[in-house]
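Changelog note: in this version the structure field was regenerated for every chain. One regenerated record is shown below for reference.
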Amino acid sequence: MASLMAVEATQDQTVTRTAREYLRVSKGKGRTARSIRDQHTDNLEAEQEYGPWTWGEPFQDTGSASKFARKSRDDFERLVADLGTGEFGVPGDVLVLWEISRLARETGRGVEIVDRCEEQGYLIHITSHERTYNPRNYNDRHELITGIADAEREARRLSKRTLRGLNSAAREGRPQGQVPFGYARDYEVIDRRPRPVAQHPHEVEGPLVAELFVRVAGAQDNRLGDEKVPLLYSRPAKAGDQPLPETIYAIAKEWEERGIVSRDRVVDGEHVPGIPFSPQNLRSMLLRPAYAGLRKHNGTIVREQWKGYTPIISRPLFDRVQQILADPSRRKYTGEHIRHVLSMTMRCGVCRRPMAVMARNKNGKKAAIGYQGHPCGHVWIPKEDTDHLIIGELDRFDPETGERLPPKLGVILTWLANPDRHTALRHRPDDDAKTKRMRTELEQLNRELRLLKDAPKPATALARIERTKDIEEYEQRVAQVEAKLSKLTTPAPLAALLPDEPITDVVRWWQQTGVEKQRAIAAALLTPGMLGEVRIMPSPVKRNSVPVAERIAWHREESGVD
């Protein structure tokens, strides 16, 4: 009773109360500062009529108050905590809001605020209502909770309408959101709103995106056999030279040297110039299906392609890049610093860290060259003997006569010398039973989907909803089968490193191949799914040499290549 009397006493206009604002805007770009400033200005004007107030430290957030928000509101959580502990102020102090939706659009959280203000004796002033509420008054409490519930209903309505538009656009393959780097978008006013009608390669940025995909894939151009895609970037053709995949890091470094930067932006009314692309930026670009004219929705590639899309790259090129990025050996493809073929392709048998070439010193001089776990140092193994076993002993001579002996092929060259394996790796047969079965299934699904779309429009709303669900289900099934078929028909990354025809003289071909390409081939082969991951085990006999073959463990998957 004493507490209630204290609150009522503070409502006397002659008493100066402490007021603390909660200021929030939903967006953090462009109008953020002005919106918060406008809220504060209106709150200051309210003091003239409902004060006097002494202004305390405000709470301020940027982000949605809806339950559908993905970003947390730090100051909101601090406000809730302070109201519960009494740190907010003394009974009679005022929480000032510009409107009720600034507080919460989730009824449960809003009621929690009202409950805590009631417990501690705080007042709530809503400037847009032109009124100060006392949560201990049942009428005021009812109006506050009703306002919060109305705000939640509006948030849910907006969310449903937005999702309906997004889902509709996704089903049709239409672009959504900001225009990606590399594209330009044309708009027309339809139903009094600007609508995208075309998305095509930007005259300057488009060729850069095409170049990125081509260089990472080791392709010749951005079409990769698809003549429907405009030719935006093509590598200069050199006789006998097959393009190699390049690392994202190397491309980012070269682009920075060429002065290639991101788009300029305007943030809070200020011009912010573009910055150089980091490797992380380029990797994000490489993962975007939009560059192949595709739309990803709920984790699935949408089958339909919007008629206004002009893709920058072809679908086969996009699929090849995705396979390369998913390959654990992709970081070993290129680099001017590469001097040793097997360095960083083998693993320490103790901790599975990569093995690098290291020299063992004796009396201040290099005594032996070998592979050592890097940076762990758990194991060390002689380099020459290891190379002979895994690659081959190519320059052999008779120690007595000095005559050249036939080369002795190691594991890698023995595998490459088999023409059947080369053909199977590079060209997957079209009549493969699994591939044919999946193509037949895909054709059947597409026929049924076309029939479903061309069928007369159902008369009832319930029937139309069911028809939409059926169409979505078929589209998802088509996308899943297409993804599986793409994996079956897309050549493995290793195929891009090998010549078109089977290798007849594997030793000569290997010696003419640069060390960068040799490293790339070794990295692709020495994986669990191919020949096996090479793990160097510790020597079972201390300070005594053990044959290299006894210290190498081959870790293979059951489905690995024989």
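Spot check on this record: The CA atoms of residues 221 and 233 lie 6 Å apart. The mean pLDDT is 79.
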